[in-house]
Amino acid sequence: MSPLERAATKHAFNVNLQPFNNIGLDNALSLCDGKADMLWQNTNSGDVYVWFMNGFNVIGGGYIARGVPNNWQLLTAADYNGDGKADLMWQDANTGGVYTWFMDGLKIADKGYVVNGMPSDWKAK
């Protein structure tokens, strides 16, 4: 099991957003109801947390994963499996591996490598 897979299996329900940074993604992230949501990753622990948004209001949220290793960086959020929900694509900064989480709200419904060992001279855009 990869470190990203292990992190994807750890869940909790409380969060302190002080050490969290917003992950700037070009695509709108909607994990739940079709409205854009806000994704956060703790720069110390690697924990990944989402706010379900309704305009300016946070209407819910929770952890997606705990302890994601710092070498795994979120590339993009898009609907890769056609279910109408955003999925998360990651890349390992050390190996170039590209890994996708197929999301269902806060639950990772499926996951796996897209490619293992993408050369460093290729960058996602």
Percent of residues in beta strands: 35-45%
Main sheet?
A: 4 strands, antiparallel
- Quick one: overall form? globular
Q: What's the SSE pattern?
A: HEEEEEEEE
User: Quick check: average pLDDT?
Assistant: 77
Number of helices: 1
Give the assembly state of these chains. Answer: single chain
Q: How far apart, in Å, are the first and last alpha carbons?
A: 28 Å
In short:
With 125 residues, the chain is mainly beta.
Layout of helices and strands, plus pairs?
Elements: H1 3-8, E1 20-22, E2 38-42, E3 48-54, E4 57-65, E5 72-78, E6 87-92, E7 98-104, E8 107-115
Antiparallel strand pairs: 1-2, 2-3, 3-4, 5-6, 6-7, 7-8
Q: Mind explaining what this structure looks like?
A:
It is a single chain. By secondary structure, this protein is mainly β. Helices cover 5% and strands 42% of the residues. Strands 1-2-3-4 form a 4-stranded antiparallel sheet, with no helix packed on it. It has a 4-stranded antiparallel sheet with strand order 5-6-7-8. Strand 5 and strand 6 (87-92) form a beta hairpin. The longest helix has 6 residues, at 3-8. It is globular and about 40 Å long. The model is unreliable at 8-28 (pLDDT under 50).
